[in-house]
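Table S2 (continued). Query chain:
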Amino acid sequence: MAANPRNREEVRRRAKADGIDFYFAQFVDMHGKPSAKLVPAQRLDMLFDDGAGFAGFAAGPIGHTPASPDIAAMPDPESYTPVPFKPGLARFACDITVDGEPYNYCPRTILKNALARAEKLGYRLKMGMELEFFLLKERDGRIVLADDLDTMEQPCYDIKGLTRSYDFISQLSKNLNALGWGNYANDHEDANGQFELNFEYDDALRTADKAIFFRYMVHAMAQERGLLTTFMPKPFSHLTGNGGHLHISLWDKTGKKNLFEDPKDPRGLGLSKLAYSFLGGIIDHMEGLTALFAPTVNSYKRMGVGAPTSGATWAPAYATYGMNNRTQAIRIPAPGRIEIRAVDGSANPYLAAASLLAAGVEGIAAKANPGEPNLDNLYELSPDQIRRKRIKTLPANLLDATRAAEKDKVLRDWLGAMDGRPYLDYFAEVKKAEWQEYHTQVADWELKRYLTLF
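Corresponding output:
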């Protein structure tokens, strides 16, 4: 698992040019929460040879108990990322090993295994990710929007709101471009206090690495300014939630030919037959996929049937696809590319990418048929119309989604196993416990509604 000497020397050369004094050896748990150790630059060889050691159970759900052996975070040289706002510091995304062996409870390892499996079939997944977030602050023990003036009823693309947060957003943009990520647009999103910065797509593993670093960078930069941020799917009941939409395309093994693109598509969407089968596979497995795309209790307050108190939800409720139509779970924004809108800001990008790849590749093998694109505004259709059109509704809560995932043999197979135990069973155990903990809490809403009702 140690780094190739050639890669090691390339890192050493780049780090010297960048003036790097320390490295973060960083990995993620099931939730996508980054953990790290700070390693002096003089110990680069030791880091590449032995990794950084951790007590896995202390870091979060990664398959360990207090009795388990230490995990070692082994750095990927290609993930070398200088931290733009901390001169002298760089980060490695790491794969977890135990006793020198790959560890399949590591989300990054799960994605790498899925990508290798798809590559044997001739497929290479490329991906972009749109991550929405709120800028917040604490006041009198409450979490409020950072911008007191951001009160418009329809603030999306508001130039004044973007100007008031210009210093933070523009510096974040500069940091992305300093990393070579190709930031190309930044905007005030649909909710008050909500923003999105877009960067170019890449191979799926690199995009997942970037997504983890992006979320870290936004948090860290805000905290240095006395602010907070959140990628939580629905932090405020009256405002639109945070999406984490995935834009995906399948390429040949060289990465030069987009297998999803076909200018002669009779449907006019610019998709190939292979792309439609991939799309059909995602729709066929969407109930189980939802647990990986929307993996928190809070996720299901962002999406669902019916209008939210914030107006347009922009979140899907049905397993459908359409053209440039944001009421669909899957949108076709351009030829040769599909957008998975069911993914929210809490998704672990490694697990989301691995699971959608599983469903899509199995869809290709089965020649799955997604049907014709849906042109309706699904927010306006009645339940009876939905039934007549045979449109599947997405799970209503985390428990339903987790149960659907448990039954999905494709996800069970592709997410792999460790010591004979499928990762999906471990995932379901953690998520059911999360649901149970939430379900035992009595909310203010319940007290207000029921305390003196009976």
